[in-house]
Write a structure and sequence with these properties.
Blueprint: H1 11-38, H2 49-67, H3 71-79, H4 96-103, E1 118-126, E2 129-136, E3 144-148, E4 155-157
């Protein structure tokens, strides 16, 4: 066989390679679409979808614990520390008694009263934080603004000058 002798064209092999290529491309796009739905259809860049998924999950777990009036579990989720009681000195900036004052159903500082239900109406990456507008107890206005830090997994109140309008993301 010399250099100029071409191998015989194998139509079955070419068709098989083309089928494998197109199957891979279609599978990739289907996986991207499924992940977009799993991440709650974020209006953000694809590399931020994981932050949406984990941030929404943390906010939902936190508010579920608040709805059950399990403030110790809620504080552990807020601080991203299940064993927060073992090292109280680590959480001096937002101690548990102050947290109870903000989130307890009987606290005068809690402007939502007894939290019975919640819905994340909008979420958007702002810098390196996930900002969320959460409607409490079926309210249509005055959404609770929380942010989630993907670097340490903590929740916090969003800065007062930054707010997401849940109406713009319907």
């Amino acid at each position: 066989m010399t250099l100029l002798d071409a191998p015989k064209y194998d139509e079955a092999k070419a068709r098989r390679n083309q089928t494998i290529l197109w199957s891979g491309v279609v599978s990739f796009f289907l996986l991207v679409i499924v992940y977009w739905f799993v991440a709650a259809r974020p209006v953000d860049w694809p590399w931020n979808w994981q932050n949406h998924l984990f941030g929404r999950s943390a906010a939902n777990r936190f508010l579920d614990a608040v709805e059950k009036n399990d403030l110790e579990t809620a504080y552990g989720i807020w601080m991203h520390d299940k064993n927060w009681k073992q090292h109280l000195d680590k959480h001096k900036t937002y101690p548990f008694p102050r947290f109870q004052g903000d989130w307890s159903s009987t606290s005068p500082d809690n402007e939502y009263g007894v939290i019975q239900s919640h819905r994340i109406a909008a979420a958007r990456m702002y810098g390196n934080q996930l900002l969320m507008a959460i409607l409490i107890n079926g309210r249509k206005s005055k959404a609770l603004s929380l942010d989630w830090d993907p670097h340490d997994g903590t929740l916090s109140f969003a800065p007062p000058d930054i707010e997401i309008n849940p109406e713009s993301y319907k």
